[in-house]
Design brief:
about 0% strand; cell inner membrane; single chain; mainly alpha; Amino acid/polyamine transporter I; about 80% helix; Amino_acid_transport_2; transport
């Protein structure tokens, strides 16, 4: 091949990589589905209870907080010298064997409790829908939870193509229902009273709201697998393409989720939101009770089912990958055997938890929250000063912004504990 032909081939390859493809769209849907879990149904109550000004400020900060943090984590995974490195490999490569294994262990324990929560939440959602909306009797909890958890894990075992197809099937109706509900509530809007905020109260409310926003939009569990796939698919263009996909994911999240949040908040008074928080029910359940609306009561479980299922798949992806990495590095077990052991152990753990039906949301949130903040915000920022491939980002304002948000999130969560 001549030099001109080689140059033309490279130019064509670069053009094909710069175009938006179905592959990119599928990953936007996957990351969106991972982020939009059961937390979205409690987000309007948690963020809206502080009043108008904290809500407005956090809405403006939501995009940079979401995009910049996940971009930093993706850059960290892609900074490895080895093309097949997952998260556990990269932390060991950059921080050494001992520190790397500790961070990998923390990463696993930031994700796994969320799977337990989703196992319980999905079982309760389906059981409630069967009893209250379909007029059926409850199935034995052992049977119902086992079928639901096994079904979700079966999708994971079907491979990347089946997983992406499942996300596409789940996310489109999720987006559609969220948008429809947001618009459906508009006639009930009551604009909140806007008064000059007390600076001390505003500062404290904003501080304590940071982790709520961070974790409601988090899709960190899927970033390692996502970054690895982009590396294999786009080669040298992986970082640029990954950043573009993450930017569009964040935009989609902010557009649909914040519209839903504002619509719910404008349909309720601060006193009603405090009442909903005290009752520990989702915003849709509370709205259905307040307006005595069977339409919302029917759509609520549907949104919860789709949101929990899609987010479960994304988090299982991260837990499975990190468990396999830990087991293969600590023992002589091969990757395929480790994968089988991990899937079986996680299935049994999630199933048992779903059967027992413990009240674990607050406890698991306290465990997962600070660890996710450290891994999503603080650790990639530290890596910028330690890893030669990342030091070009050292002087960026976005680097300091991500670090400050991470420290605020960790401190607020520890304060709440």
């Amino acid at each position: 091949m001549s030099n001109s032909q080689a140059g033309d081939s490279r130019a064509m390859a670069d053009m094909s990589h710069s175009r938006w493809t179905q592959h990119d769209t599928n990953w936007v849907l996957s990351l969106f589905g991972t982020a939009v879990g059961a937390g979205i149904l409690f987000l309007p109550i948690n963020i809206g209870i502080g009043g108008f000004w904290p809500l407005l400020i956090m809405a403006l900060l939501a995009f940079p907080m979401t995009y910049l943090a996940h971009r930093g984590l993706a850059r960290f995974v892609l900074s490895s010298k080895n093309n097949d490195s997952d998260f556990t490999d990269v932390v060991e490569e950059h921080f050494g064997a001992t520190s790397g294994r500790l961070i990998s262990l923390l990463y696993f324990f930031s994700i796994f409790p969320i799977l337990l929560i989703y196992g319980v939440g999905l079982t309760n959602t389906v059981d409630s829908f069967m009893v209250n909306q379909l007029g059926m009797e409850s199935l034995p909890r052992v049977l119902l939870s086992g079928v639901l958890v096994a079904g979700m894990i079966a999708i994971m075992l079907g491979g990347e193509k089946l997983l992406l197809r499942a996300f596409a099937i789940l996310v489109y109706p999720l987006v559609g229902v969220l948008l429809f509900l947001s618009l459906y509530l508009i006639p009930n809007w009551q604009l909140p009273a806007i008064s000059s905020p007390d600076l001390g109260s505003l500062t404290e409310t904003l501080w304590l709201s940071v982790p709520i926003v961070v974790f409601s939009f988090s899709h960190a569990a899927a970033i390692s697998s996502f970054a690895n796939t982009q590396r294999k698919h786009y080669k040298s263009e992986a970082t640029v393409k990954a950043e573009g996909i993450l930017r569009n994911t964040a935009l989609m999240l902010i557009a649909f989720v914040l519209l839903f949040v504002f619509s719910c908040i404008f349909s309720l008074t601060p006193e009603q939101m405090a009442e909903a928080k005290e009752a520990n029910v989702s915003v849709l359940s509370y709205l259905a009770n307040v307006y005595n609306n069977p339409f919302i009561a029917t759509l609520g479980p549907l949104v919860a089912f789709i949101a929990i299922t899609s987010s479960f798949l994304g988090h299982f992806l991260g837990a499975r990958e990190s468990f396999n990495g830990l087991l293969t590095k600590q023992t002589s077990i091969g990757y395929k055997a480790a994968d089988k052991i991990g899937v079986v152990l996680m299935f049994i753990s999630i199933w048992i938890c779903a059967v027992i039906n413990p009240s674990i949301l607050d406890m698991m949130g306290a465990i997962s929250g600070p660890i996710i903040a450290l891994i999503l915000f603080v650790m990639p920022t530290i890596a910028i000063y330690k890893v030669p491939a990342l030091q070009k980002y050292k002087g960026n304002l976005s680097t300091y912004f991500v670090l400050i948000v991470g420290l605020l999130a960790v401190s607020a969560l520890l304060f709440n504990m």
